[in-house]
Design a protein that fits this description.
This protein has 327 residues and is α/β, with parallel strands linked by helices. The chain is built from 13 helices and seven strands. Strands 3-2-1-4-5-7-6 form a seven-stranded mixed β-sheet, sandwiched between helices.
């Protein structure tokens, strides 16, 4: 099987989420919340022979690749096909709680290079972008059905694209001539919509628009806050939760949630009397995000914007409404 994805911050994850010492003992359980092709899971299972992992992924096609890759580990590796927010929300009360949880919020190279779903503008593919290709609106549905103002706001909010309004206007004008159904067609529209000097920058001018569409199609920022909270409460006391983010909106959500978990009091600001117990829910292990070394960035360019944050759980965080996610 061809493996095309290189997991980011791999050595840092193995170090910060190492299942060594209490409460891990000899039979720790880890949940890889974003399994992809199984790069992180493979490394953890290889380095820690007593570790067991449950791998989650919404995309059954890429999970099949991971199953093949990780078959050598036998019963130490189990799989769940579905969204991570559903998994943690429906986690059985009597099930074994994990000692370690990892979220890698990046998109696998497989999706850009092999999925055929229009994640990349390098190829002329159907404009889909769904990680679960069997449900929800596709990128083409959004591009062809959303109002101009909705498109402009989405592109700006999810990618900080400064020409979002010009791009949205060009999309609406172009779809008058027929449905926009391919990744190349959309990339050409964006290329034509932006100023000439913007077309030859460090990245292709359609990069941010494609990122915004992918985030919107898969409800990535909507799923994350509640999934983090539910995952934290599923975690065993003393266990560790690590999250790798790739852009500022994700990182802000994680940073603010972890910061509030580490506060002495997490009651709402307007509440006169503390009812949360007056003790932190977690110890923030990474006061600053862990970022890739220069060597990794040179060898694996998608890692350049990656940030890892890790907390160690002390107790459950009961009231999600009191925690500011920054989103």
């Amino acid at each position: 099987m061809e493996i095309v994805h290189t997991p980011v911050l791999l050595q840092e994850c193995l170090s910060w989420l190492s299942p060594v010492g209490e409460p891990f003992e000899q039979n720790a359980l880890m949940i890889d919340s974003t399994l992809g092709e199984g790069g992180h899971s493979d490394a953890f299972l290889s380095h820690f022979p007593h570790l067991r992992i449950i791998g989650l992924d919404a995309d059954k096609v890429i999970q099949a690749r991971a199953r093949e890759r990780l078959a050598v580990y036998g019963e130490r590796m189990r799989f769940f096909n579905g969204w991570f927010n559903d998994f943690y929300h429906d986690f059985p009360a009597d099930a074994e709680r994990p000692n370690l949880i990892l979220f890698d919020l990046g998109i696998s190279v497989y999706h850009y290079e092999k999925s055929g779903r229009g994640f990349s503008f390098r190829y002329d593919e159907p404009l889909d972008m769904r990680l679960n290709a069997e449900s929800g609106k596709s990128a083409a549905d959004i591009v062809n059905e959303a109002r101009e103002a909705e498109l402009a706001d989405m592109i700006y909010l999810y990618s900080d694209e400064k020409y979002s309004r010009r791009i949205a206007s060009a999309i609406v004008e172009a779809r008058k001539g027929g449905r926009i159904s391919s990744s190349k067609a959309l990339a050409d529209i964006v290329w034509s919509a932006v100023p000439g000097n913007y077309r030859h920058g460090a990245i292709h001018p359609a990069t941010r628009t494609f990122q915004a569409l992918r985030i919107s199609v898969n409800s990535e920022l909507d799923r994350l806050p509640v999934a983090l909270h539910d995952a934290f409460n599923v975690l065993q006391a003393g266990g560790k939760l690590g999250v790798i983010t790739f852009h500022s909106l994700e990182d802000r959500i994680v940073k603010n949630y972890f910061r509030n978990l580490g506060k002495q009091c997490v009651c709402p600001p307007g509440q006169a009397v503390c009812t949360c117990g007056g003790s932190p829910c977690a110890e923030v292990l990474t006061r600053k995000p862990v970022e890739p070394a220069e060597t990794e960035v040179r060898e694996n360019s998608p890692s350049r914007s990656a940030k890892l944050r890790v907390v160690r759980k002390i107790r459950d965080a009961e009231n999600i409404r009191s925690l500011n996610f920054g989103h």
